[in-house]
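#onboarding

Welcome to the new folks! Below is a worked example of what a typical request in this channel looks like: someone posts a single protein sequence, and someone else replies with the predicted structure as tokens. Don't worry about understanding the tokens yet, we'll cover that in week two.

Example request:
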Amino acid sequence: MQIGYLDISVGISGDMTLGALVDAGVELTELRKQLRGLPVTDWEISAEKVLKAGIQATKVTVTTMASDRATDHHAHHQHASYAELRNVIAGADLPPDVVNSSLQVLDSVAQAEANVHGVSLEEVHFHELAGIDTLIDIVGSVIGLRMLGVEKLYCSALPVSHGFVDTAHGRLPVPPPAVTELFKGYPTVPVDINEETVTPTGAALAVTLCEEIGRFPPMVVEQIGYGAGSKDLPGRPNVLRLWVGRSADDDESLIIDEVVTVEANIDDMNPELHPYVVTQVFAAGALDVWLTPIQMKKGRPAVKISALATPADAEAVAGTLLRESTTFGVRLTRSRRRCLNRETVTVTTRFGELRVNVGYLGGQVVTVAPEYEDCLNAAQSQDVPVKAVYSAALAAADELWRQPTD
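Example response:
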């Protein structure tokens, strides 16, 4: 799978995104050709190589013939309603996936503006973001990612600069309110820059198109592109860096996700409480819980309680461990795991029907494990050893190993 990663070390805007895409290999002629599918005229797009703090990058400029000048973000005060821009994109002669993704980005910007100004979507008019250049920025970015074959996009934490910016609404703090609205729910990082570095269009492209924000994905890097911003920043390259490559998680037969390990070292809790704590942590949503004997300071024997949880359940698991044990703190470590695809089948044995968990890798059975609770219940009801039931289940599942691969 081809993936991309936006390294937003300074900032992001629509034209910086286009510049990074062109720098990473998007043919400007083909991009221009596809953009002609938009039912608008009197525009042109060009690209040039520039230096930003010693780094060569591509600067993309959109020119509107009506004004006969280059248009940068916040450089003009044309007005275009959200509905008008939406109709233009919806009526474009472009692939459905391009249209849908472009509309999602536009909707994100419009909703942020509506929330900030306390109006409905129908009342939203784009001032600094107005008109043709907004359409080219959004739709061109979606087309460019498609041209590079990027199926999933990721990006770094969103940078928060400071200062003030003059807008059609007056002098506003940086980041502007619409940008801060778009930042809600996503990781951010402060940057000591007294300038606006993230535009609403740039923020919307990041939060709408990116699969995940904050983490660099496992990748075999093939291309790197640099998109130049309009401003020159002292001592910093004002560029957006785009990494493109093949996912290192390309084995689609594996389930790949993220988990959080929640741990605490405890040397002052009554050992009789350990089973209860484990039970409560499981009830809070832990995927697994285990105890490890350790030695702490002053030679004290202790126990490390560890729990595995999904990111969504990690806080609940941590809170339960803090509440039910004697620890004063827990550690949370995020990691990635790879799991076999699995299914549960039922086999018939002389002890009755028993469930068996089957694991697949590349369509081939690589592990078979009887369900312990089924084996235990059968053993207790028929007064036989659990190992006898377990062996019978494995024997009945033997034919699963001989099934042809997909």
